[in-house]
Design brief:
alpha+beta; five-stranded antiparallel sheet; 23 strands; Collagenase (Catalytic Domain); about 35% strand; single chain; 3 domains; ten-stranded mixed sheet; about 500 residues
Length: about 500
């Protein structure tokens, strides 16, 4: 038997002559954990399960023909859920089924199953003389903590491996009234691959775009010379081997993850790691943050430029893993004399900011971008960081630059600008007066925009999560050096 030991045994009972789908599974698979996702994709994409028992007198003493009930158990250790569809049952009839538990039916008639116990009642044994067939497509879980816990329990008990003790992936038992008429089961048992080095792992789930995420970690290392590791960068689409990560001790223990199409994840006090190898820390990425923007066009000639600027800001924030997208509302007030006068041509003074904020041309707790007929590039206003002015000499990157200021990349010795700061060039978005082709935030800049206490992303309530005080010119064990990971990513 190979090291992978993919299949311990598979029992296939081919029952009944009436259907090519009459395949009943009662299977146990012994798998190498690292190969499990590949195995899952290749061998269990979708499994057929006929409704009923399909043989004469399969259930002596059962009532006569009638609807059946499916009782489904999904163990989230191995299977996070499944999609169940039926061939031979009209959607209208599917919607009349009784479904209890963590499940729902979608617009296409697919039943989306979550983990736990689910009951589907009222399935017809025949439709127009044909046996309906269910097709179940399990979804593999990326959380291997449960697998490791199973291993630890087994070692602690001193018991040998036995099929009845293996973690259960998915099981469907069919009933006619109180009588069981059929059963489907697929169980999976994971163990470390033979010859693979023992390691702690970082696992990323819900990576929407399946891009190469950027993880920034602080931890106490048991590898090499050991000690406190600060701001280690790890790139992975899903699972990264971390070597030996020890319990926190005197070292900070944090995990930050940056990804396209997902919000940034920041965990400042991670307690997952222990001294023995085999720990897995899982980061479940969340939906990208959507921040509203009120765009005020006081100069009609800039309407098209404003739309392009917002599109560019969305592109740059996403491709630099900042975890934010902007949802603009465009207000063309260029023909309104009172609006143009109230907005003015520059940041309001302390005396006049109140008047603009009290006017109809300002949206509270929201980024406001004012496009005005005045010869300058752009400015984020110190009196109110939600107020941004864009002038007639702005370029394509100016609005994105001002949003960077609004999101905490200020103040500092250079007011958040990176001009002349070691490790930066004029491709960085925060290079003041730079070209329209500026296209890069560093990981450290994205970290600050999300976590800094002065960032309007936090002040406006668009982001909920831990915060830090990380001015651009400050670096510490909490605040990464501003140029960290300045290469394109």
């Amino acid at each position: 038997m190979s090291d992978l030991k993919k299949i311990l045994f598979v029992v296939l009972l081919l029952l009944g002559p009436s259907s090519a789908y009459a395949v009943h599974w009662n299977s146990v698979y012994k798998l190498c954990a690292e190969e499990f996702p590949k195995f899952f994709r290749e061998f269990t994409a979708e499994l057929p399960i006929p409704v009923g028992c399909e043989v004469i007198d399969c259930c002596p003493g059962c009532p006569g023909p009638g609807p059946l009930d499916w009782r489904i158990h999904i163990d989230e250790t191995i299977v996070s859920g499944a999609t169940l569809r039926f061939e031979g049952i009209p959607i209208k009839q599917l919607r009349e089924l009784s479904i209890k538990g963590n499940a729902k039916i979608d617009d296409d008639g697919n039943i989306l199953l979550g983990a736990g116990e689910i009951e589907i009642s009222g399935l017809p044994a025949e439709v127009d003389g044909r046996v309906p067939v269910g097709f179940i497509g399990p979804r593999a879980s990326h959380d291997y903590d449960g697998v490791q816990q199973s291993e630890k329990r087994k070692r602690a008990s001193g018991t040998d491996e036995d099929a009845s003790d293996l973690p259960q992936g998915i099981e469907i038992v069919q009933y006619r009234g109180a009588f069981q008429v059929n059963q489907f089961a697929a169980r999976y048992y994971l163990r470390p691959c033979r010859g693979a080095p023992a390691t702690d792992r970082l696992v990323i789930t819900n990576n929407t775009s399946t891009d190469n995420t950027i993880a920034m970690l602080d931890f106490r290392s048991g590898s090499g010379s050991g000690g406190c590791i600060n701001d280690q960068i790890v790139r992975t689409t899903q699972t990264a081997n971390m070597g030996s990560v020890l319990s926190n001790g005197r070292c900070p223990s944090t995990v930050s993850v940056f990804s396209d199409d997902n919000a940034m994840s920041y965990e400042p006090s991670v307690s997952t790691w222990t001294d023995p190898l085999g720990d897995t820390h899982t980061v479940d990425l969340q939906t990208i943050i959507t921040a509203p923007v009120s765009v005020w066009i006081a100069n009609n000639a800039q309407l098209a430029a404003a739309q392009n600027d917002i599109a560019n800001a969305n592109l740059l924030f996403n491709q630099n893993n900042a975890g934010v997208q902007f949802n603009p509302t465009y207000n063309n007030v260029s023909g309104n004399v009172a609006a143009v006068a109230a907005i003015g041509v520059w940041c309001p003074t302390a005396a006049t900011v109140g008047a603009l904020r009290a006017s109809a041309w300002y949206t509270a707790n929201t980024l406001n971008a004012y496009y005005v007929n005045s010869a300058f590039t752009g400015v984020n206003c110190g009196q109110d960081r939600n107020i941004n002015f864009i002038g007639t000499t702005a370029n394509l990157a100016s609005l994105t630059h001002e949003f960077g200021h609004a999101y905490g990349l200020r103040p500092s010795a250079s007011w958040g600008h990176t001009n002349g700061v070691a490790g930066f060039g004029n491709t960085n978005i925060m290079w003041g007066g730079g070209p329209g082709t500026r296209n890069n935030f560093t990981v450290a800049q994205s970290f600050r925009m999300n976590t800094d206490t002065t960032s309007m992303l936090n002040s406006n309530g668009d982001r909920a999560g831990p915060r830090e005080t990380c001015l651009p010119n400050v670096s510490s064990t909490t605040c990464p050096a501003l140029s960290l990971d300045s290469l394109p990513h």
